[in-house]
């Protein structure tokens, strides 16, 4: 077989030497340029860090930023530079340590300033706390009660941001390389005093892991807001380890105080049980569930009282099993803060009427007794004055904790709580938050995040992709049925809503009509029952 060969090109040795020298010179110049660029970035980082000595408001938020706090530093240009610098060095770190297939042991710590030593019998410890009547405040009592079940993991991003402020060049260089490997962009913009809040059970871990993965990819890998996980039961080690390994941000796990997750003394347990049985027999969603009622009451009037949220101003509620369809390349917390927004949502829909038969009536009563007026309460009312069932779906909400902790909101919640509807009926936190916003906030303080794609259960929405940039930022499933335009959506009413004063006269008239319809319905039911007995007697004679 004939061998295929290549003709050898004869080049004089002097020419070869000259070409080699030129190549070598180019390589040297490129290397020097790269070294200068790297040194320039590190010098800029160090100067930026050194020149900013004042700490942010986040220093009050120990569990959020860990034991050492990030200083407030100026913006450094752009995230592409860190990738360029760190790409070569990143190889020494091996595979991503947050890869679930190679899960490392995550270090969980006690919070600084919190109790760290406890007796072996934690149930007895907790009961002793609950039996003690000498506490100076509920906050002090609740802090002591939940302390054994509070665990914290300081996120890798928080550590690396601290390391790039080091005076040691090698520490800075290694931190930059690891940030590149973990795809943590440089972001020195000031952050809001905010947190994700996740009410979740251990058994929901499998549903939550894809959710936090999406949330990190779409938003939080750039902003590194902390997560607070709450549970009425202790979190398992598996849950805490796998969740902490899913983010480079700080995570804290805590138990809910018993006072926040129990039936109050003014509720008759037998009456509440009969109500659950009746609603369950009528196939009302979660009508037979006691735990669901605890959840709704907790989200309506207690989660913002949790000891770990007392120094936090903003929260973003996240639930397991939800999807985020769009990249969020700005900070919604700062948007809310800078534009005087107090409450926000992405989905508005109608509530199940059988769960809230008297909620609207009690709301109108409260408005009348407290002389509450509004510039947009008409959004929730039909033309006949009845509740149209519209509300903002609270499984996604970004809102002000200061507003929820206000005397005005607390007074409204206490009024509803004492009306017993959370247990005798099945009032949800979504209509409670919505009606409270309608009463206590003006129209401009409530915001629709129209550019956020989202799904919870069968309800999904995708933004209008014709808007500039959204087509590039969103990956909505092709078969998605956009609930925004579906029957049962209250978004069209919101978009067409005009500010119309709702006065005491409106509340009084709406309340009169509600009571008149109820009396008519009760009279009609009584008449039907009488007629049924009459017919039963007639047929009984055959």
Automatic annotation (TrEMBL):
The chain crosses the membrane at residues 9-30. InterPro entries: Glyco_trans_15, Nucleotide-diphossugar_trans. GO terms for biological process: cell wall mannoprotein biosynthetic process; protein N-linked glycosylation. GO terms for molecular function: alpha-1,2-mannosyltransferase activity. SUPFAM superfamilies: Nucleotide-diphospho-sugar transferases. Belongs to the glycosyltransferase 15 family. This is Glycosyl transferase. The lineage of its organism: Eukaryota, Fungi, Fungi incertae sedis, Zoopagomycota, Kickxellomycotina. GO terms for cellular component: Golgi apparatus; membrane. It holds the Pfam family Glyco_transf_15. The keyword Transmembrane helix applies. The keyword Transmembrane helix applies. Keywords: Membrane, Transferase, Transmembrane, Transmembrane helix.
């Amino acid at each position: 077989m004939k061998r295929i060969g290549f003709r050898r090109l004869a080049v004089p040795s002097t020419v070869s030497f000259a070409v080699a020298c030129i190549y070598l010179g180019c390589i040297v110049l490129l290397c020097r340029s790269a070294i200068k660029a790297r040194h320039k970035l590190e010098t800029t980082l160090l100067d930026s860090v050194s020149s900013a000595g004042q700490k942010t408001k986040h220093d009050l938020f120990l569990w959020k930023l860990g034991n050492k706090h990030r200083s407030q530093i100026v913006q450094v240009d752009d995230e592409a530079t860190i990738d360029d610098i760190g790409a070569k060095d990143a190889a020494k770190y091996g595979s991503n340590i947050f890869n679930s297939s190679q899960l490392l042991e995550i270090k969980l710590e006690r919070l600084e300033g919190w109790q760290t030593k406890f007796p072996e019998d934690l149930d007895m410890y907790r009961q002793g706390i609950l039996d003690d009547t000498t506490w100076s405040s509920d906050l002090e009592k609740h802090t002591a009660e939940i302390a054994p079940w509070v665990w914290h993991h300081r996120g890798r991003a928080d550590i690396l941001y601290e390391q790039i402020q080091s005076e040691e060049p090698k520490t800075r260089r290694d931190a930059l390389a690891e940030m590149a490997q973990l795809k943590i962009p440089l972001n020195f913009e000031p952050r809001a005093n905010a947190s994700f809040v996740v009410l979740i059970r251990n058994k929901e871990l499998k549903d939550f892991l894809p959710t936090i993965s999406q949330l990190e990819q779409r938003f939080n890998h750039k902003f590194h807001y902390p997560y607070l996980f709450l549970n009425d039961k202790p979190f398992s080690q598996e849950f805490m380890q796998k969740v902490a390994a899913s983010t480079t941000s700080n995570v804290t796990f805590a138990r809910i105080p018993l006072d926040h997750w129990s039936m109050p003394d003014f509720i008759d347990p037998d009456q509440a049980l009969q109500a659950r049985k009746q609603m369950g027999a009528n196939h009302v969603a979660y009508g037979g569930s006691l735990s669901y009622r605890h959840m709704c009451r907790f989200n309506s009037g207690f989660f913002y009282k949790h000891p770990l949220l007392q120094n936090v101003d903003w929260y973003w509620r996240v639930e397991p099993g939800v999807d985020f369809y769009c990249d969020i390349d700005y900070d919604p917390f700062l948007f809310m803060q800078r534009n005087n927004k107090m409450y926000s949502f992405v989905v508005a829909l109608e509530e199940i009427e059988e769960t809230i038969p008297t909620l609207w009536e009690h709301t109108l009563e409260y408005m009348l007794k407290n002389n509450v007026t509004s510039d947009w309460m008409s959004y929730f009312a039909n033309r006949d004055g009845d509740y149209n069932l519209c509300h903002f779906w609270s499984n996604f909400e970004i809102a002000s904790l200061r507003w929820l902790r206000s005397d005005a909101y607390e007074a409204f919640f206490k009024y509803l709580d004492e009306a017993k509807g959370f247990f005798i009926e099945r009032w949800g936190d979504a209509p409670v938050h919505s009606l409270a916003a309608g009463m206590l906030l003006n129209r401009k303080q409530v915001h629709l995040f129209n550019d956020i794609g989202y799904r919870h259960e069968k309800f999904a929405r995708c933004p209008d992709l014709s808007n500039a940039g959204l087509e590039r930022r969103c990956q909505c499933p092709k078969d998605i049925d956009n609930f925004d335009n579906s029957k049962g959506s209250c978004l069209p009413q919101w978009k067409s809503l005009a500010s119309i004063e709702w006065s005491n006269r409106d509340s009084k008239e709406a309340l009169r009509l509600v009571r008149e319809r109820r009396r008519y319905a009760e009279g009609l039911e009584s008449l039907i029952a009488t007629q049924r007995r009459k017919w039963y007697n007639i047929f009984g004679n055959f």
